[in-house]
Amino acid sequence: MRKSKAVSAWSLVAASALVLSACSGGDSGSPDQNGSSTDIKAMALGKAQNGENFKLADTPGYEGTVTVGIDDGYSGYNNDTPDTNTSYNNYILTTVLSGSLVLDGNNKVLMNNDVLDSWTVTSKSPQVVEYKIKPNVKWSDGQAWDCDDFYLAWLSHSGKAKTADGKQAFLSASTTGYQLIDQATCKDDLTFETKYTEPYLDYKGLFGPPAMMPAHVLEAQTGIADITKLAPTGDGAELKKAGDFWTNGWKGFKADVMPASGPYKITAFDANQKAVTLEKNPSWIGGKGGPSKIVVKAMEDTKAMATALQNGEIDVAASTQPDATAAGTLKGLSAQGVTYGSASQLTFEHIDLNYKRMFKDKNLRKAFFEVVNRQEITDKLLKEVQADATPLNSVVFMPGEQGFKDLYGSKAGLGADAAAKTLTDAGWVKGGDGIFAKDGQRASFKISHNQNARRQQTVEIIISQAKAAGIEITDDQDANFLKGGRLAASDYDAALFGWSQQPFKAEAKSIYITRVDDSSQNYQGLSNSTIDSSFEAAVKATDEASQVENYQKADQAIADEYATLPLFQTPSMWAFKGIDRTYMQSYNGVLWNAGEWEQKK
């Protein structure tokens, strides 16, 4: 998945960006047990969760290794650059890096009370937020986790830091929210203050775990004496050094530059086996529970993941790629002590159409929407996983949220005849091969996606539907499509993937407003003044009613562009044995509270 991690009360970045979901606020609804005899919903809460605060419970812990299967592999310690920004990094880093907030299984936004004492709006005009950091919070290398790390998070995400030649110093996946902070100040080592140029209701979504890189490591690697003395408008050469390391120095895994600030640290990464080993962080000041070692393996075939749990090769199967066959297998393992769960995620599967290629033709975009029968896709591919799965009809709101409207039911799935008429009326002519063409361009294109069986099946269904309308589609499956740079480079005709988001709708802005630099996730080239102005107004709104109204305007304008076709809200499915309780958090996966897991008696 990508945060836009690709997975509001909606996979996938709360972080300042959405993450790409290899498969965006408020609560998206109650979890659905879907076949489990155990009270899965009760597992959505942390054991020591209290009101608006989260702390890891200090459980006994246990010796031994827990092996977890997820859909795709880890690629980077810094998950906030365009080429690393995926849910799968998030799933591992959620227990390695600390930040200001924690999301429980119900997507409730909680202050991380293991590392913070408070986050307080000390002034509303201008908006000023103060963060009080707990004393003695440390990185696993013994260095302090403190105000310097918050300052670096702001500097790297602000979009204001430029090199001497005027280029962005830090290539962050998104600047949403951070760019509204005019001043960031370390009042002392444990007090960080942010002052905003505009109101920002989603301020709690900033300074989450993915943003919080170790400032002391960057200083040591670049020779910068004190990152807090480096202003965004400061020395361009120094900013370039800082930005180059921040953007490129935290790929893969190198133990000496990638310490942990959470309950676990990465101790090994096997790129060939796509496996990450986590062991307890000796400097962690919070609860000491959880297994002594966790191995996270990438298992791209969800059916193989289910079989691995059945055979005892893994202890937790955690997939954001719902598969009917795998779901059936997992549900059938209760006699082996396996618990199965499924829940709607804050992630949605969709197809983006590239304006830089043939889909600059709006009539072709419209015809594509009309020919895709999303009900057939959900019926065939999701019902076994989640019985009430339906097509999604918004890209900003999830069903049940205030502001949700059906914007796609009248645009998509109208049938082959409707699509053919749209093309004919626009001057497209069907050739002897049965495929429409216009001005030498055939209505023939590829749908690109990562290596994923359900996505392949999705494309197969669409190929058949489109053929009847005189549209030719080819399946372009590339294991590295999301993390290899093709998506970010707009190297596709149509892209099938997921966005995963925390409960902050401001994050959606980055993927739909006109792209002006590499800090945007709008890879498809969409540009519409109504979308831009509506998102700007919504993000800066001072009251919820105005905020919702402007998000609705943006949602409607995106739909009217026929830019991105939402398919469905992606359900997660997971199963486990040998552990007392596990819940697949929509944005951060199953490891969000691994530090309080207990061995099942």
UniProtKB/TrEMBL annotation:
One molecular function GO term is: peptide transmembrane transporter activity
Instruction: Read off the PROSITE patterns from this record.
Output: PROKAR_LIPOPROTEIN
The name on file for this protein is: Peptide ABC transporter substrate-binding protein
**CDD domains registered for this protein in UniProt:** PBP2_Lpqw
Kindly indicate whether the keyword Transmembrane belongs to this entry.
no
In terms of InterPro entries, this protein maps to:
Peptide/Ni-bd (IPR030678), SBP_5 (IPR039424), SBP_5_dom (IPR000914)
Gene3D superfamilies documented for this protein:
Dipeptide-binding Protein, Domain 3, Periplasmic binding protein-like II
Asked if the record carries the keyword Transcription regulation, the reply is: no
Against Pfam families, the record matches this protein to: SBP_bac_5 (PF00496)
Give the record's keywords alphabetically: Signal
- Which biological process terms from the Gene Ontology are attached to this UniProt entry? peptide transport
Q: Its domain of life?
A: Bacteria
Q: Name one GO cellular component term.
A: periplasmic space
* Signal sequence, renumbered to the chain: 1-22
- Ranges for domain Solute-binding protein family come to 114-509
